[in-house]
Amino acid sequence: MSELRRDPLDQRWIIVAPERARRPRGALGIAAAPIEPVDPCPFCPGHESLTPPEILALREAGGHSNGPGWRVRVFANQFPALTVEGAHDQHAEGPYDAMRGVGAHEVIVETPVHDHDLSDLDGPALRDVLLCYRDRLVDLYHDTRLKYVLLFRNRGAAAGATLDHSHSQLIATPVNPIRISRKLEAFREHFRRKERCLFCDLLQHERHDGSRIIREEGGFVTFAPYASRFPYEIMIAPKEHRWSYGELSRHEADGLARALKDALLRIRLGLGDPPYNFVLHAEPNLHAVPRRGGFWDTLRHDFHWQLILYPRLTPVAGFEWGSGFYINATPPEEAARHLRGVDVSDEAVAAWRAARKA
After folding, report:
1. How far apart are CA 98 and CA 76, in angstroms?
2. Which residue, among 311, 83, 51, 13, has the nearest Cα to 167 in the 3D structure?
3. Which of 93, 99, 130, 275 is the most exposed place for a label (fewest CB within 10 A)?
4. Is the distance from CB of 130 to CB of 256 less than 8 angstroms?
């Protein structure tokens, strides 16, 4: 059983999850080591019995659960960081705080095609993935033990992936992660002082300045954050105020799919196809807090969801670990200028693929 432990010095929670040591690369897996092929691949059609039972699947009419014919498939992670059984049981251990590892850990297999990346999917297929994210977020937020759901993707060994088949994951936690807590505080304080969404103000400035904008189309803005922690870090956000990813419409999902595919292709073609991570900073679970005061009164006005991509081009070293500062050798203005200039036309993508096969 996993456990959450709170560090009173950093005021953050960590997860101790011995079950994760049973993964293909184990507890001592080195991030830079290549991903070794697994045969048979548990994420490929026909091998559904090698995974836990599906929680959600998009499949053709007449298809059977836990069998082939799906387009997107969601199931519990076989080696979970957190599990749904039990109560929090938060307790003290001397000067420390701990609680049972209650939560959820799920895998979203994005395509039945083994060698397709997320950027290889067409618009409707990518939209389906994004709507599955939404549907799992909404469903998990009915459980008031869960405070937050983080959706994320690790692509490539250096980004933490252990299987090649295209997939993303979610982990639902019984506390708000520290990065989310700090964002919520910043949003709330800005709204308290100015009665405006902080992120909307940032987007207004970015769109007026233009130097860090990569693309703006279909209701979404893609840009390099002003204080990017990593080279070529990218943020995608709704142009208009949107506090809830859980309320994402099908039309909005179409626009987000176009924006995400465009950003992934710019990373692939413009940066040499590096490993990357992305995370979705969605809203916290309003069902898990009192209905009056705090989040309920302000969140719809002050929060604005974002999707952030992190190409893994440089390592995090001693200074970053020790200080919390990040050293970024590529100014975001330069990153945006380079990424804007990347040709992501169908012809350019086809030429890139042909060169890779040669």
Report:
1. 24
2. 51
3. 93
4. yes
Distance between CA 220 and CA 324 in Å, rounded? Answer: 30
Note the pLDDT of residue 13: 84
Around Cβ 26, how many Cβ atoms within 10 Å? 10
Q: Which fold has domain 38-357?
A: HIT family, subunit A (3.30.428)
Q: Which residues, given as ranges, of the chain have pLDDT below 50?
A: 27-28, 31
Q: What is the pLDDT of residue 3?
A: 85
> CB of 158 within 8 A of CB of 31?
yes
Residue 46 identity: G
List the structure tokens of 231: 């080279």
pLDDT of amino acid 33: 66
The answer to whether 155 touches 276, Cβ cutoff 8 Å, is yes
Q: Which two tokens stand for residue 160?
A: 């933490």
Backbone angles phi, psi at 325, to 5 degrees: -75, 150
What does the pLDDT read at residue 141? 95
101-144 per-position pLDDT tens digit: 899 999 999 999 999 999 999 999 999 999 999 999 999 999 99
> By C-alpha distance, which of 170, 355, 163, 165 is closest to 273?
355
Q: How does strand 167-173 pair with strand 96-100?
A: unpaired
